[in-house]
Design goal:
This protein is mainly α. The chain is built from five helices and no strands.
Length: about 130
C-alpha cells in the first residue's frame, strides 16, 4: 500500500503543476543556467581559436606551395588583371568602343558602295551592264 500512496502523491503534485499551480522553484536554477551559458561560450571560443590555428597552418602550407611553384594568390591575380584592363594597349583588340577614332567604321554603307563601284570599273562592258540593272 505504501508505494501506491507515494505514487499517487507524486502524481497529484505533478497534476497541480500541469493545471497551472505553483511550480517549485529551484533556488540554484538561475546560477546553474548562467554557468551552463558560460560553459557554452567558452567552448565556442575554444572551437573558434582551434579553427583559426588550423587555418593559419593551412595557409602556411599553401604559401610554401605557391613559393615552390611560383604561383600567385587569387587576390593578387585579380589585382593584376584589373590593372591590365585599366591600361589598355594602343591598338588592342579589347579596347573600348570610345577609343575608336572618328571616321573609322562610321560610314560602312558608303564604303561598300565605293568598293562595288571600283570593282565594276574593272569588269568588261557586258558584265557592268548586268550588275547595274
Amino acid at each position: 500500500d505504501q508505494p501506491r500512496a507515494l505514487l499517487c502523491a507524486g502524481a497529484t503534485k505533478d497534476m497541480g503543476k500541469m493545471l497551472g499551480g505553483e511550480e517549485e522553484k529551484d533556488p540554484d536554477a538561475q546560477k546553474k543556467e548562467e554557468e551552463r551559458q558560460e560553459a557554452l561560450r567558452q567552448q565556442e571560443e575554444e572551437r573558434k581559436a582551434k579553427h583559426a590555428r588550423m587555418e593559419a597552418e593551412r595557409e602556411k602550407v599553401r604559401q610554401q606551395i605557391r613559393d615552390k611553384y611560383g604561383l600567385k594568390k587569387k587576390e593578387e591575380k585579380e589585382a593584376e588583371e584589373k590593372a591590365a584592363l585599366e591600361q589598355p594597349c594602343e591598338g588592342s583588340l579589347t579596347r573600348p568602343k570610345k577609343a575608336i577614332p572618328a571616321g573609322c567604321g562610321d560610314e560602312e554603307e558608303e564604303e561598300e558602295e565605293s568598293i562595288l563601284d571600283t570593282v565594276l570599273k574593272y569588269l568588261p562592258g557586258p558584265l557592268q551592264d548586268m550588275f547595274k540593272k
